[in-house]
Amino acid sequence: MGVPGAGLAKGLAVTLKTMTRRSHTHQYPDVAPDLPPRSRGVIALLAENCTVCMLCARECPDWCIYIDSHKEEVVVPGAARARQRNVLDKFDIDFSLCMYCGICIEVCPFDALYWSPEFEYAEYDIKNLLHDKDQLGEWMATVPPPPAHDPNGEPAKEEATAAKRAAGGEPDSGRPARPPRAPR
Prior knowledge:
The protein is about 20% helix and about 15% strand. The protein contains 5 helices and 5 strands. The chain has helices spanning about 5-20, 55-60, 105, 135-140, 155-165, and strands spanning about 40-45, 65-75, 85-95, 115, 130. The longest helix is centred in the first third of the chain and has 15 residues, at about 5-20. The termini are far apart.
């Protein structure tokens, strides 16, 4: 058993040590914070890449993404019939519901959603946190470019396969090559 009050003495020692240090208060509104690169702020939308596949809205655990679209006929010269394509009419994110998990960004197969480091979008009314595709598109200007590929790292599988095909060789699949088929 220890000395009575030893824990209290240790706690007071920590408090006194902390009181003698200089504080590290950041004067936020006057001085902009130094954010790390690629920090997460708000979700930005590149509407040209959106094909209205609805994956982001279906995978969102909070159901805070609202999408509306219509089909448009596209006439392709030489085609037997006109093709249809989805046109994005409405893409809204309700940031009062969003928990910023990033699932919508990860699941988007066409790179239409990005993280923007913009974080100053507070509103006085919670209804104003429903942002439409125009507001989400404005934040695309603040999205930083992706980091450069490490020159000493391994190339991506796609790059290695493309380089082998360009060099004239077939990519090595680990299996022996099939003999050519005999003509019938």
